[in-house]
Structure formats: C-alpha cells, structure tokens
C-alpha cells in the first residue's frame, strides 16, 4: 500500500509542511490514562481539508442506491432507523468501493494512536458509515461495540470514529458513559431503535451512569477512539445541517475467528481458531 503523503497537509496549522514533516499524531501519557480510565479519547491528529473533501465527494455518491460497486458492500441500509419519521444511513464496506475510504485506513491520525492503544500491531476489522440527514436524523441507541463482534476474540478491538462534518450536541454527536469500559459485556439490545432499550439489561448502579453522559463534539476531520465495551450512543438530528461520520474498526494482530461462518458477507471463511489475516483484514502497522 502506497500513500500519497502530499495529500496530508497539516490539520492544525495551514502553513505547515506535508506529513511526515513536523507532524506528530501520537497520544500523550495523559491521553492514554484518560482512555484507560474513561474508555475513550480524542486523537491529536486531524484529517486535512483535501482528504475530507475527497471522502465527502465519494460519500455523496455512495448515499445514492444503485451506485457502481454496490455489490461489494458487507451491509447497506439506506435507513436503519425503526422510527418511520427519522433516517439513519448505515453501511459497512466503503473501503472496498472507493479509493478515499480505502486509503483512510492507513492515515496516521488513525494508525499511530491505534497502535498505542492496542499495544500491538494493528489489523483492519471493518469500516462503517453513519449519516444523519438534517431535520430528521435518527438515533444510534446506547450499545457496546463488542456485543456485535463476539464472533471474534479475544476482545482486543478498537473503534475509531471520524467526523466528516462537525459533530455537535445539537446534530447528534457521540455521547459516552465514562468508565463503562470496565463493565461486563452486556446483551445486545439493538442499534437504531429505542434509544433507552439498554436500560432493560442494566443494574441500578449502571442506570445511574446515564444521569451524566459525556458528549464529544468534534470538528470535521477529528477522530475519537473508544474501547469495545464503552457504552455510547448518539441522539437525533433536528438541525438544519447533516451529521456524517466514518468509522474504522481495528483489532490487534492475533485476534482469531470464533466461527466457521464468514465473518462478513462476501468475505472468505477464516476457520474457527485461526487469526484474522489476508486481503480482507490487512495489517495496518508494524
């Protein structure tokens, strides 16, 4: 994989030199401590305007059903919301359809912090798109990511959530329950239905954590990382602007398949007990 580093202009200072000159995407010790304690942390790197522009241009195309390459999606939901009055676009597999989403996997704003947080070489698991249109964007209900990934193990996974547009409290940014990364794995209660469905599987102490969730507002191009057990969700979008995001899910090298079924639609079977590897699960860092 060859990256055109000329695209990686400085995410903070517009006059800075291209990556890798004078750019450092590494998390600091206080960031690592925050992640360990709270289960999430905002990265110090940021995608450039050029890269964001390419991603959003491709996304506009992918949002229209019947586009070129549509047979390559792992999942494609024009509207996954269970509320007929709201819309939540959710799809898996954009990296197979468009170069911008393919190249995103190797961006150092993702790979450098992920290597630190997983503490090992990192592999790609799968990507996602979450898009909430203006005025009627649907919720993503409270959940733990690993509740969807138990077909792989051990649990050494990481979610990288990338804002393609500004994500605010008003338009449905992520909210986290700080410290829930130390909870046990909870039953899966649904992704795009009742925001509060998870309450049926919580004890009294866990329920009290919902009194003070932490919103994470991001500027376009920023990345927030969270642990696979960290409970998170996002509320509806009734503003006049959309909220679009790309998600890159990663695993530590050595995570294995726990099934003899395909891990994703259209992907070659990895026998139970064998590590994820090959063209669908590439190594992103040494």
Mind explaining what this structure looks like?
- The chain has 286 residues and is an alpha+beta fold.
- It has one domain: Jelly Rolls (Sandwich).
- Helix content is 16%, strand content 22%.
- It has five helices and 13 strands.
- It has helices at residues 29-38, 49-62, 99-104, 108-118, 204-208, and strands at 40-46, 75-77, 89-92, 122-132, 140-143, 152-153, 157-163, 174-176, 214-216, 222-226, 232-234, 243-252, 256-257.
- The longest helix is centred in the first third of the chain and has 14 residues, at 49-62.
- The radius of gyration is 18 Å and the shape is globular.
- The two termini are 13 Å apart.
- Mean pLDDT is 91; it is low at 1-22.
Shape descriptor:
globular
- CATH hierarchy class name: Mainly Beta
How many helix segments? Answer: 5
| Arithmetic mean pLDDT | 91
> Approximately what portion of the residues adopt beta-strand conformation?
15-25%
Structural class: alpha+beta
Q: What's the order of the H and E elements?
A: HEHEEHHEEEEEHEEEEE
Task: Please render the helix and strand layout as text.
Blueprint: H1 29-38, E1 40-46, H2 49-62, E2 75-77, E3 89-92, H3 99-104, H4 108-118, E4 122-132, E5 140-143, E6 152-153, E7 157-163, E8 174-176, H5 204-208, E9 214-216, E10 222-226, E11 232-234, E12 243-252, E13 256-257
Antiparallel strand pairs: 1-10, 2-3, 3-4, 4-12, 5-11, 6-13, 7-10, 7-12, 8-9, 8-11
């Amino acid at each position: 994989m060859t990256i055109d580093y000329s695209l990686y202009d400085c995410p903070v200072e517009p006059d800075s030199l291209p990556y890798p000159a004078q750019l450092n995407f590494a998390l600091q010790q206080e960031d690592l401590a925050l992640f360990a304690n709270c289960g999430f942390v905002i990265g110090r790197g940021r995608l450039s305007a050029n890269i964001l522009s390419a991603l959003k241009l491709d996304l506009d195309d992918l949002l229209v059903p019947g586009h070129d390459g549509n047979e390559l999606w792992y999942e494609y939901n024009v509207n996954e919301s269970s509320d007929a009055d709201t819309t939540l676009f959710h799809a898996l597999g954009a990296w197979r359809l468009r170069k911008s989403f393919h190249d995103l996997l190797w961006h150092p704003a993702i790979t450098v912090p992920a290597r630190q947080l997983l503490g090992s070489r990192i592999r790609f698991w799968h990507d996602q798109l979450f898009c909430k249109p203006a005025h009627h964007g649907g919720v993503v209900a409270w959940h733990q990511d690993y509740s969807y990934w138990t077909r792989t193990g051990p649990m050494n996974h990481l979610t990288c959530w990338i804002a393609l547009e500004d994500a605010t409290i008003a338009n449905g940014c992520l909210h986290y329950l700080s410290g829930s990364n130390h909870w046990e794995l909870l039953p899966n209660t649904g992704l795009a239905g009742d925001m509060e469905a998870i309450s049926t599987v919580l004890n009294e102490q866990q329920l009290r954590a919902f009194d003070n969730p932490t919103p994470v507002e991001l500027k376009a191009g920023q990345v927030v990382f969270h642990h696979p057990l960290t409970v998170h969700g996002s509320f509806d979008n009734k503003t006049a602007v959309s909220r679009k995001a790309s998600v890159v899910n990663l695993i530590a090298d050595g995570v294995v398949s726990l099934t003899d079924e395909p891990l994703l639609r259209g992907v070659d079977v990895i026998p139970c007990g064998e590590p994820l590897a090959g063209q669908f699960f590439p190594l992103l860092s040494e």
